[in-house]
Amino acid sequence: MKQEIRAHNSVLDLIGDTPLIKLNRILAKYPGNYYAKIEAFNPGHSTKDRIALYIIEQAEKKGILKPGDTIIETTSGNTGFSLAMVSIIKGYDCILAVSSKSSADKIETLKNMGAKVYVCPANVSTDDPRSYYQVAKRLHEETPNSIYINQYFNELNIEAHYKTTGPEIWNQTNGLLTHFVACCGTGGTISGTSRYLKEQNKDISVLGIDAYGSVLKKYHETGQLDKKEIYPYRIEGLGKNLIPSATDFDSIDHFEKVTDEDSAHTARELAKTEGLFLGYTSGAAIQGVKQLAKQGVFAKDSNVVILLPDHGSKYLSKIYSDQWMEDQGFFDTEQIENPQKVEVIR
Ligand code: PMP
């Protein structure tokens, strides 16, 4: 029989079909069964691989993109990395306008993934020509054959999750899930997944996680964008200071807000209890579930799926650094006096 080499055609073949893993310890004291959808298993280590591939392939299908064209977006985060990765394989130029608040590590990573990075001042208003929104808009206008991804206002962001994340979760649970929990940034993940799941079973409850300092929860409850809700916070990728059209508020039953401090501790606890070394918003999602469980939202026979968006390696100098935790005032005296010991042998 002819021997075949079993290889993937490119890294893009590995996007999606992420595993669902039962959480056995971190939520054990609450009623219900808890399962984590681990998006760090995507090749770019985050859920954003899905939208990068989907939005680019839709543009190809419509004949808007051909090799050599340019992809433009405003992000130093996961979406930037995923767009750079897809652009390399498919032969596009990738331009990312990022804020000067972005860490040097992130900017170097994007450069190493072949992206052209414009670092724009963080302390200017969004309509200032130097802001990363305006720079991206200008570059899009000036660059022939370019597309602007605009993830916060792009319906295809929702569609990517409707077509992939939703069906995966439905099939992995054989339709037995009762609750779906996800963080909200652009809202694409929760909205697309929720639309698919609720079409299969309208009784599935969809719970969004938001940050203190963000406007999403209040907008969901009142229909008002209350600027008084806005203040700076540390979690990246969660919550927003504007209302993204990529969030379908009707597809979400309830929003739960979490703090920077609780989310950081819960991410560290997830590593120590379940062996899952994941990102800041993964900690936020589990923290939100703990709060909801304490409010009596889940019963003994609840099957709760929690989407965990990215990998812990992106946060080594933040939540996984004892020094950073201490600098934020997130360690109490006992934790400072009894840190996790590292023995140095000389
Ligand atoms: N967590 C992280 C780490 C993210 O980068 C994002 C994307 N902003 C989210 C959560 C939220 O996902 P979405 O934008 O689909 O709401």
Strand order of the largest sheet: 1-2-10-7-8-9
3D shape:
globular
Mean pLDDT: 95
Helix content: 25-40%
Sequence stretches where pLDDT stays below 50 over 5 or more residues: none
The molecules bound to the chains, other than polymers, are:
4'-deoxy-4'-aminopyridoxal-5'-phosphate
Rg from Cα? 20 Å
Q: Write the H/E string, N to C.
A: EEHEHEHEHEHHEHEHEHHEHH
How many angstroms does the end-to-end distance come to? 57 Å
Please give the number of β-strands: 10
Determine the strand fraction and express it as a percent band. 5-15%
State the major sheet.
6 strands, mixed
Tally of contiguous helical segments: 12
Main structural class? alpha/beta
Q: Mind explaining what this structure looks like?
A:
This protein is an alpha/beta fold. The protein is 36% helix and 15% strand. The protein is built from twelve helices and ten strands. It has helices at residues 48-61, 78-90, 104-112, 132-142, 155-163, 165-172, 188-200, 216-222, 260-274, 280-294, 322-327, 333-337, and strands at residues 20-22, 33-38, 70-73, 93-99, 116-120, 146-148, 179-183, 205-211, 254-258, 303-308. The strands form two sheets. The chain has a six-stranded mixed sheet with strand order 1-2-10-7-8-9, with helices on both faces. Helix 2 links the parallel strand 3 (70-73) and strand 4 (93-99). Helix 1 packs across helix 2. The longest helix has 15 residues, at 260-274. The mean pLDDT is 95. Bound molecules: 4'-deoxy-4'-aminopyridoxal-5'-phosphate. Residues 77-78, 183-189, 237-238, 279, 281, 309-310 line the site of 4'-deoxy-4'-aminopyridoxal-5'-phosphate.
